[in-house]
Amino acid sequence: MTRTLEWKVDLVLSEEDGTTRASAKLDTGSGRLTGRGTARCSPADADIPKIGDELAAARAMRDLSGQLMREADRDLEAMGAAPPAKPPVPDTGWSSAAG
Q1: What does the DSSP 8-state code read for residue 63?
Q2: pTM for the whole thing?
Q3: Measured in whole angstroms, how far is the alpha carbon of residue 46 from the centre of its chain?
Q4: pLDDT in tens, 33-64
Q5: How far apart are CA 69 and CA 60, in angstroms?
Q6: End-to-end CA gap in the chain
Q7: Cα–Cα distance, 29 to 55 (Å, whole number)
């Protein structure tokens, strides 16, 4: 079975007072997701709008990616295929056991 789909992402950036906001909208034909990202220019840094655009856009795309992955995990689980288990978090700090 061969299948071809085209999903488009609409990425909108706006900047005001040193803050850049990005909105990444994905329409899959059967659903819509929106990722959001923000970047702020530190007053101590040079104001280079391109960097704020890149950071805000990347953060919006990362947010969108996470939403899409969670949706895929839910769909897999609904089909009886659980998403991969997350690795255990190692214990850190001092042990509570008396030594």
Answers
A1: H
A2: 0.78
A3: 27
A4: 999 999 998 888 888 899 999 999 999 999 99
A5: 14
A6: 63
A7: 28
